[in-house]
Amino acid sequence: MRRCHDARNHQNQRRSKSRDHCVEPPGKAHGPALGGAFDLAALCAIRICSGAAAFGHPEIKFGAPPLFTPLRWIVGDGHARYLCLTGATIDAKEAHRIGLVNEIVTNQSVLERAKILAAQIGQAPDPTLFTLKQYLMGNHGKGFEDCFAEEHDAPFKSLLQKGRFPT
Fold first, then answer.
1. Three-state secondary structure call for residue 89
2. How far, in Å, are 26, 71, 128 from residue 21 at the CA level?
3. 88-97, pLDDT tens digit by residue?
4. pLDDT surpasses 50 at 6
5. Alpha-carbon dihedral sign for residues 103, 106, 111, 116
């Protein structure tokens, strides 16, 4: 698995290159995404793959503990525990079924689809993407009320105070 650098470059033509000021481009997998490559995939906001992709944490068999927390946020405790503890490898179809990947595309269209998704993401204003990234990375473990207040109530209150909406 490697990050979609072409999509990142496309997205960053008008955007700061700082990771703190943009949402990562879609992660793409075409072939095995094992160990650290699997970890990179789990850290992407959106994941696409070809039917030839496979995901797993075989490093557990060699004494290296896998990265559990991001995987748990994506697929839930049960699937994450299974993948991390057993070192099992799953195919693209299973990865899609458990929510690890968002889309399976043809082998030839993985990069093209990543570019399209990056362009769609890049249509949003930078401050909006920065705020959304904070929500995506910071709401795990919080209850609905806390998340809703943080994502909805606080921003709208701020906009009202700035006079952006009529009261």
1. strand
2. 16, 23, 10
3. 999 999 999 9
4. no
5. negative
Structure tokens at 53: 């992709």
Domains of the chain by start residue, with CATH? 2-123 (3.90.226.10), 124-167 (no CATH)
- Tell me the pLDDT tens digit for each residue of 50-75: 999 999 999 999 999 999 988 998 99
| Nearby residues of 153 by Cβ (< 8 Å), 6 or more positions away | none
- CB 31, CB 52: distance < 8 Å: yes
How far apart are alpha carbons 115 and 134 in whole angstroms? 23
Q: How far apart are CA 60 and CA 86, in angstroms?
A: 8
What is the model's pLDDT at position 26? Answer: 65
Q: What is the pLDDT of residues 9-31, one digit of tens each?
A: 444 443 333 333 334 556 667 78
CB of 34 closer than 8 Å to CB of 56 = yes
Q: Check if the beta carbon of residue 44 is closer than 8 Å to that of residue 20.
A: no
User: What is the spatial distance between Cα 59 and Cα 37, in angstroms, rounded to a whole number?
Assistant: 11
Give the residue among 31, 17, 5, 38 at the shortest CA–CA distance from 118.
5
